[in-house]
Design brief:
The protein is mainly α. Helix content is about 60%, strand content about 5%. The protein has helices spanning about 5-15, 15-25, 30-45, 50-55, 60-70, 70-80, 90-115, 145-150, 160-175, 180-195, 205, 210-215, 220-235, 240-245, 250-260, 265-275, 280-290, 290-300, 310-320, 330-335, 340-345; strands at about 85, 90, 140, 140-145, 360, 360-365.
Amino acid sequence: MSNGKLVKDANTKGAVIYLLNLFCNASNPIIRELTAGLLGKMTSEKLYGPKLRITLSKFLPTLFLDAMKDSPETAVHMFEGTQENPELIWNDDSRENLCSVVEKLANEHYKIQKDDPQVQWKPPNEPCLSLPENQETIIAGVYLRLFIQNPTWVLRKPKEFLTELLDKLNAVMSKDNINNELLETLTQALVCLLTAQPSLLDHVPALGHIPRILQVMLRPDDAVSGSCLQIIRQLSNSDTCIKCLSQSSFISPMMKAMTRRLDLVGIACESLNNAFHQSSEDLMTQALEAKLVPYLLDLLEKKLTGNASAIKAQIVQALKAMCLSLQHGEQIIEQLDKSEVWAEYKNQKHDLFISETQTSGYLTGGAPSVAGYLTQGSMKAMSNVPPPLEDS
C-alpha cells in the first residue's frame, strides 16, 4: 500500500488499529507477517508514511517498525521474543500489556464504526508502550543506561543518535535549573559513543554544537564545566573539530572551566596538548591573549588533587607543544624561561609510562595516555656516609 490517499484513509478511518490488532493478536503467524509487511510499506509512503510512523511508534518500539520494512518475519520474531539491549527493552509484560490495549482499542472503534461508518479514529495522545520509560533516559531510540554499559553495541543509526544526544545536552546545559544526574548520563553516553566510534567526530562541527558548548562553558556551574571539559577532550581527537575550536573563542572558556574543575585539569591539558600539536596559530594567539602560559605554570607550582604527577605531565606536554609554534614559539619560550618552576620540569623526559611509584626522586603516576617522569620538588642528595653496622 504505497498510495498516499489509501495510507491517509487507513489512518483516519481506523484501519491502522485493526492491522495492529492482527499483528499483535492473530493466531496465524503468516497473517501476522503479512500484516507487518503491509504496515512497513505504509510507513514508507513519502507523504503520509511519516505521520503513520509517529502513530505506530505510540504502540511499538521504533526497532519493530524498521524491521517491518526490512523483514516482516523478523518483526514477528522480535515481538514474540524478550530483548534487553541499548536499542530495545521488550519482555513478556510489555508484550501482553500491548496486546491487551490494542485489542481493546480495536474493539471500541469497531463498535463505534458500526453505528457511524464515517467516524474518524483518533490515536491515543500518550504512548501505549508498557516499558520502563520513567526509569530510562532514551535518546533516538537508544537506552542510555544500557548503551553506557555496552558502548560497542552496533547502533542502527549512530549519526542520528549523535545529533539528538548533542541537541539534548545543549538543551540541558542551557537550562536555569540543571538536572545534574541527567547531565552526567548524557555526557557519559556521548563520551562512550565518540570513544567507540571516533569516525563520528568529524561530523560534529557541521552540527553547529561546538560554539554552543564553548559558550555554555562560561556558565558558573561546576557540573556544566565538567561536562564540557569531558566533551572537548573527545573532540580534541579530531583535526576537524580542533579546526572548528580554533575558529571560536576556545582558550578563555577552557581556563574558566579548569579553574572551577581542578579535578579535571588533566583531561583539559590533554585537550590543549592535542590542539596545540596541530600547530594552529589562531589557538596560540588566543593562548597568549588569555595568558594561558602563566596560568599553566601556576598549576605546576600548586598541590593538585588526584594524580598530581600525571596532571603535571600533561601540563608540561601542553606547554612544550605551544613552544613548537612557528609564529609565537619564541614569545612562549621567553615566558617559560623566566619561570623557576619551568626550569625544574623542562628537561625531564615525558616519553615513558608514568606509574604511582617514587623512584630516585621522581614521582610518577597516571594512565597509559600520559607519558613521562616528573619530579615532585627537589631531589634529596644521597649521603656518602655508609650506614651503621648492626650490633652482632
